[in-house]
Predict the structure.
Amino acid sequence: MARSQLPSASLHVLLALMEGDKHGYAIMRDVESLSDGAITMGPGTLYGTIKRLLGDGLITEVTDEVADGDDDERRRYYRLTGAGRQVTSAELTRLATLLRRVRRWRPAIEGFGS
Amino acid sequence: MSRDGHARLYRTLTTLYPRTFRREYGEDLVQSFRDELHDRGAIRGWARVLGDLVQTIPVQHLEVRMNTHDPSRRARWSLGAVAMAVLAVIAIGRAVIILVPVVLLVGVVALLRWRSQVPYRDAISDGTVHWWKLLVAGAALFLSIGAADNYGPNDISVPWTVAVFLFLSAVSLLMLGALLGLVHLTKRLRRRPAV
């Protein structure tokens, strides 16, 4: 049974977590930065995505930590699991393979030539 | 309005999420909104979360229903929805018929958005098998528009732009369902072994 590709929001959340543990708002900021502003998440979209990724075992919640420079607020931090790293790597490989094939197949296509 | 006031208003809006989602992530939602207010200001903060609320509230409610593996629970939820609709008609009267096409359309959009967010799970391998659901949704939307036009209250006028939008949505659902049905049929015919 073919695996469906990762939705864009899920992939970007996983990519943001590849750098290390982050809390929700930091993930939101990094996703926007990573996508050059193309993907902007609201809190509902973010935590809906986090809920699904937690349910699928691709990320895990780490023990409450205090955010840097903000002693009064305890935020929930999230971490990529081993399975999450594998899925993210597989997805990036799939995209890289697709790009390579497009370049080989149609090098004349503007913007895709190697 | 102070930042606390904006956060309180947003917290009130988050009560529209399912209880389980709210219980788990309610504080995180409000905290993220506070951070948005701090970084971007009230106007840009609200501009982001309002669209987010409209999209994600129906999706979260749908996820709660679709993720149940208990057929009897789904049946109870369906019967409960029908009972609520009947009670609404009795309590509110014919005016509720105007809302039916809008509710149907919101439900279909939420369903399509939920489908797009379900990641890599093996449960759904071929989306074309759901072609008949789009046909049913389009037909139901058409019927409800007709019912609202014929049996709805005469003292409530629906803007023609809304009526046209609902009509075109019904047509789109029917055409998409027919197209997916054709693709599904073609796939099945191709899978048949050669004689």
The two ends of chain A are 33 Å apart (CA to CA).
